[in-house]
Design goal:
globular, DUF7344, DUF7344 domain-containing protein, WH-like_DNA-bd_sf, mainly alpha
């Protein structure tokens, strides 16, 4: 493989990674799965937790409609982007786990430093690389 092909491949991988992390909801999904790793989390349970976070409701008050919308969003938008970027993996028994990816460790470090930074700052960091300019 030539250096140009390797550079293009690395750029594509980097773009996929930043594209996956640019969306605040995908970062929420990643956090929810990471909190349940190494055992993993089922898609149905993840959808319930995702619905609770995105609708700002307690788990017990999430409606069937909220749950269904979250399940559809996970299936069609968020999980494919996170798995394609190599951040999530599905086990043989259908559970989702955080993949062994170097950026996960960096996100853990950033998370521990989050007491000194705000969420808007993190959003700006991940959204900047995918700006259309």
């Amino acid at each position: 493989m030539s250096n140009t092909a390797r550079s293009a491949s690395a750029a594509t991988t980097r773009d996929e990674l930043f594209g996956a992390l640019a969306d605040a909801r995908r970062r929420t999904v990643l956090r929810l799965v990471r909190d349940r790793t190494p055992q993993g989390v089922g898609k149905d349970d993840l959808a319930l937790r995702f619905a609770a976070v995105t609708t700002d409701k307690a788990l017990a008050t999430v409606t069937d409609d909220d749950h269904h919308r979250a399940l559809v969003a996970l299936h069609h938008r968020h999980l494919p982007r996170l798995t394609d970027a190599g951040l999530l993996e599905e086990t043989d028994d259908g559970l989702l786990r955080v993949a062994d990816h170097p950026v996960i460790d960096e996100l853990d470090v950033a998370r521990s430093d989050s007491e000194t930074t705000d969420a808007d700052g993190a959003d700006a960091v991940f959204e900047a690389p995918v700006d259309g300019r």
